[in-house]
Structure formats: structure tokens, C-alpha cells
Amino acid sequence: MSKLHKTVVVIPKSANSSFPKTPPKPQTVPPPPPPAAETAVDPTSVTNLILKTNPEILPQKLPGLTQWTPDLVHTILKRLWNHGPKALQFFKILDSHHTYTHSATAFDYGIDIAARMRDYKTLWALVVRMRARKLGPGPKTFAIIIERYVASGKADKAVDVFLSMHKHGCPQDLNSFNTLLDVLCKAKRAEMAYNLFKMFRGKFRADMVSYNIVANGFCLIKRTPKALEILKQMVERGLDPNVMTYNIILKGFFRAGQTKEAWEFFLQMKRRKCEIDVVTYTTMVHGFGVAGEVERSRKLFDEMVGAGVLPSVATYNALIQVLCKKDNVENAILVFDEMLWKGYVPNVTTYNLVIRGLCHVGNMDRAVEYMDRLKDDECEPNVQTYNLLIRYYCDDGEIEKGLELFEKMSSGHCLPNLDTYNILISAMFVRKKSDDLVVAGKLLLEMIDRGFLPRRFTFNRVLNGLLLTGNQGFAREILRLQSRFGRLPHQFRL
DNA sequence: TTAGGGTTAG
């Protein structure tokens, strides 16, 4: 079997070294089909194979492994999300496949992953390649690129990218303009967004969406007066605020701690017969609850059905969070049961809230029970589920159990993210054990290997820890790596 | 991926 497989793989090797510039030609001799047992490979086993296989031999193993389809490729790219280098290698290998060609979506994923690793060279190479294949880059591609530049503190660069979109064959329009504003606002750069808004609102014919985005931007930085000013401008321009506008302002009041104003605003919405929807109520339930007014929160929750607005899962989640934080987990669980009783399907957020609530009162065993229930509910624990359990185990001094969960992640389809590594590395310092520091060192190496950039602080902390516990050899290894950083591709530069 | 509501630690 393995011998047969080998002969299959040798054939495409010659064409492997560079990207073929021409579309694949129909072949007179069809390539031998992959062995029957491997034709229907599931995403999990392919992902695990990619993770386990040495990068040097992956290019030989992968192409003939299965019948590649866009869906399979997308699923695998998503699963490899927290292992950027592997994800990009996978993308590149399939990009030079004989018969399979990447979809626009796959390119967008690849671009997103490269951008997240701050590997801008690869990012732009993919953009060029995408265009050569007439798959884009499209508005979504630019939304991704802009968001990543903003997220890494390069808002000016993001604006440049927006302004040069048309040079890549993707003309700017109102949608892409609104996306730019939104990305800036979500990154707390409302002032910058507002300046652009003023500069270009005529050119792109700013609409209600643009105004809502900017108003929300100011709410996000707790500048509700400015948000109200935007609302006023909007009305002056003859644009009628809609329920989203009001919900934005309402949430803004809560965010800024102005519960009194929020209540007044809500009453005014009612008086003026504005539309009040499930989002309005969810905002109210959550807002009053986290402000400590649990009774009021509950009352609003009970009131909404009478007002003809049915709670959503998010509304239940809001109430559950409030009860966990300001009341009692047991009451939160009663609400959880009630929602099941009424036929709602809790999502992973619901479970995470209950799990966190239980962890918080030290009931780790029951928390784990809910994690198992989550799996039974054809819902999957996500990286947040794992992270919060790992965090509480470590805080509890049960570091082994935390590490056990971590191991589980690496073998399953929920790869650890940057937070996971930071949580665990920090935990390795509490017992002041030499062995723990060695684990911290290994975690540090592993996270770098997976495309995460440790902060300088983390680096030095691990280094000092190793030196203080007599692990000079390992410390030197890490030091060598640190000094190599200057020469590594710039995504690794400190 | 054009706007609003639930997870995050302190």
C-alpha cells in the first residue's frame, strides 16, 4: 500500500518547484487515482496529518492524498488558523497542484493568515497571484487586509491600502468606505474615522450606515456626547435614525456608565413609539445587570415578552452572565434550564458563561460536566472554553490538569491560540519549580513555531526563569533564538 | 465583511 502510494507521488515532483503560470492542461494519461481508502479523507485526519508531517516531506505527501475540493480546503485552513506557518505551507502546496485550483475564498484565508503573522511580503504576493488568476482581490480581500493593518497599529497604512484599492482592480465604493470606517471605529480610532468621513462623505455619498458606524465608534470610546452630535448631523441631513441608531446610543450610555441616561433614552424610545426590538431589550438586560441592578435586569427580561418581543439566545446569554456575575451561578443555571425547557438551543457562548460561572465558585468538576454536555449537544468547545478552564485550573494550582487540557487541544481540532500560550506560560512561574520553567521554555519555542509572536516581556521572563533555576543550557538555546530574530522574516522581529 | 445585543482576565 505505502509502496503504491510512493509511486503515485513521484510523478508530479518535477513541476513542484515553481508556480505553474499556465492553467493545467488536460492530460492524456490521467494520473492514477489515490488509493480507495484515502479518497474520502475527512478534514480532521488531513489536518492532523499536516500538523504531524515534517514540512520537508509534506509537499510529496499532500497532493495525491485525496480529491481536493474547495470546501475541504476551507475547512482545513480554518482548522489550521492557529498554526499560521502550517496553514500557509498547505496553501502553497495546493496552489501548485496539477488539477486543483484555489478558490477566491481560499485566497482570502491565505491572505488573512499571512497578514496575521505580519508577513506582508506573502500577503501582497498572494494579492498579485489572486489577480493573475482573475479571482480578485475583491472588497472582502481588502476588508481583511485593512483590518489586519489596523489591528497591528498601522492605521495609516490601512488608509493607504483603501485609497489604492482601485490600482489592484477593485474600485472603492460606499460599502468599502463604510468597511474602512467600521474597522477604524472598532479599533477605537473613531477620531480618525470621523476625519475620513468628513473628507469623503460627499465623494462616496455617505448614508445612514456610515453615520451609524461613526456614532458607534464614538460610543466605543465612551464619547456619547459626540455620538449624539453625529446623530444630530444625521437628522439635519435628512436621514432618519433607525432602530440600530438608537440601539447604538443606548449601548453607548451603558458603556459610559450612564445608566440613568440609558433609562431615560429607553423611555423616550417608548414614548416616541420608536421600534423596540430584541437587541434593545438585550442591551437593557445586560446593561442594568452588569451595573449591579439585577432586579431591574430581570424585570426587563420578563417585560419583553409582554411587549411582544421574544428573547433570543443572546438575551438569555445576557441574563445568564448577569446572574453569574452579580447574583448566583445556581440562579443562572435555572435560567439555562428554563431556556432549554422553552426549546432554545444554547450556543457555545451560553455554555462558556455557565462554565465560567462554575469555575468562578470553584466548582471545577461541574464546569467540566458542562463542557461534556456541550459536546453532546453537537456543539464544539471553542478555544475560549479551553482557555477559561485552563486558566481556572492553573489559578487553582492544578497545573497538571491545565496542561492535560492543553494536550487535548493540540490533538483535536481546536488549536491553542496566543492567549492559551500566555496563560500557560504565566502559570509555569507560580510553583517556582525548575521543571515548570523548562515547560515554559518549550511552550515559548512551540508558540514561535506556530507563528505567534511572544512579547519581549514573555521572552525575558522565561529566559530569566530558566537561568535562575539552573537551566543554563536551555536558556542559551532560547537566547540564540532571540538573537536570530533580527534575521528572521520580519513577522518575527521583536 | 456595510451598522446595533451574549464570552475575556482585572
UniProtKB/TrEMBL annotation:
Q: Where is the composition biased (Pro residues)?
A: 21-36
PPR repeat ranges, renumbered to this chain: 138-172, 207-241, 242-276, 277-311, 312-346, 347-381, 382-416
List the keywords (alphabetical): Repeat
List, alphabetically, the InterPro entries matched.
PPR_rpt, TPR-like_helical_dom_sf
**Stretches the record annotates as Disordered:** 13-41
Superkingdom per UniProt? Eukaryota
The family note in this entry says: Belongs to the PPR family. P subfamily.
Q: Which NCBIfam families match?
A: PPR
Q: What is this protein called?
A: Pentatricopeptide repeat-containing protein
UniProt organism field? Cinchona calisaya
